[in-house]
Amino acid sequence: MAESSNAASMDQDTARQLFEEGATLLFLNVPLGTEFGIDYNTWNTAEHFKGVKMIPPGVHFVYYSAVNVRDRCTAPRMGFFHCFRRREVMVLSWSKRDEDAVEHFLEDGEEAEYRGRLREFDPCLGSYPYESLKKWVSLTSHITENSVKDLMPSCQRIYSAPQLIADDETRTTAERAKLAENQRLEHPEGSGVSAEDLLPRMHSKPGTEIRFSPIPDKNYPVGASPAEITKYSMDLSYTLENMLRTRYPDRPTAILGEIQFAFICFLVGQVYDGFEQWKRLVHILCASEESLVAHQDLYASFITALHFQLKEVPADFFIDIVSTDNFLTTTLREFFTNLQGAEVGQPLKVKGRRFKESLTKRFRWDFDALPDEDAPVVVQL
Q1: By CB distance 3.0 to 4.6 Å, which of 22, 161, 274, 292 could disulfide with 266?
Q2: Percentages helix, strand, coil for the chain, rounded to the nearest 5?
Q3: Average pLDDT for residues 23-29, to the nearest whole number?
């Protein structure tokens, strides 16, 4: 990991101040060539790498992958969010057995001791790339320390590959053989038996799931009339208000922290479940017509958050991933239609219109054209 270019060009007084006031992540015994990253920056570690210095206080995402130096094969990514304090020293070390980082929880005296040794570690520490900080802040502006505590898995690791275990890990080889024999007797001709029948069923290892907000099963209230069921199947305001009341009762804009958390999990952490949750939450906000009027501050911030997120994906990103169900263009078309007809303040309408124009310019999306299913049908007489 080389010194970042901005650290090299930074004047000595500024660099000294950042070194003293910023946080430090010590990452010890990391194998040569390991993929390591913080926020939007990724490197392969050099021989004497021991961590990163001058980390700005706030929420950051640290991640890494073991690399087989011989064939350059990279293991699935692992990482975690952490809210770094001013002058904090965090110490990790690499476990060869687990191929994972182990955190050393420091008492106050131990942290002070490590801080006193930072000059010793300094030649082996990379500088946080400050040129990317503005971009990172724009993508995480609503992620707070509470967001991290609420959403991080209880195991305190985010895995790009699902951590699966068998439903019954205690089943012995003899028990599996007996199961196979029973199935053979029940189906002597082999009908209905397949190799899959003999495999254990898998599920996520407890404690490894990201604790995203559950989406309510029903999008209408108990005892709703047929008219209300129809209404709230189209206008998802009841679903959104239910989620805000359950998960974010004191500050509705905190749901944007979850949207940003899910987006970072997908974009940087390579977690597909993050993309799925991001899609669900974006769709619910875009399709909630009544809530648009009730939470105008939330929607103004939502437009800003979505604007910065879509700036970070390639122009053909949604063509490759979303075009199968045309998710984003359909969802945003509904949002812009709701916004145009809603009784909201002029500043929100203007902000929505500018957002729409910027998307049309970049992605060539036409939000004013009728979707295929709504287009008039031409009948030949």
Answers
A1: 274
A2: 45, 15, 35
A3: 96
Residue of 62, 93, 83 lying closest to 157 (CA atoms): 62
Q: What is the pTM of this model?
A: 0.86
* Distance in angstroms (rounded) separating the CA atoms of residues 175 and 190: 20
DSSP codes of every residue in 68-88: ETTTTEEPPPEEEEEEEPTT-
Contact 166, 92 (CB under 8 A): no
DSSP string for residues in 248-309: -SS-GGGHHHHHHHHHHHHHTT--HHHHHHHHHHHHHHHT-HHHHHHTHHHHHHHHHHHHHH
Q: Where are the alpha helices (DSSP H) in 117-204?
A: 118-121, 133-139, 145-151, 173-186
Contact in structure between 48 and 87 (CB atoms under 8 Å): no
Q: Which tokens in the block code for residue 150?
A: 């609420």
Helix (H) or strand (E) holding 15: helix 12-21
Give the percent of the chain with pLDDT over 90: 62
Please give the single-letter amino acid code of residue 206: P
pLDDT tens-digit readout, 332-345: 999 999 999 999 99
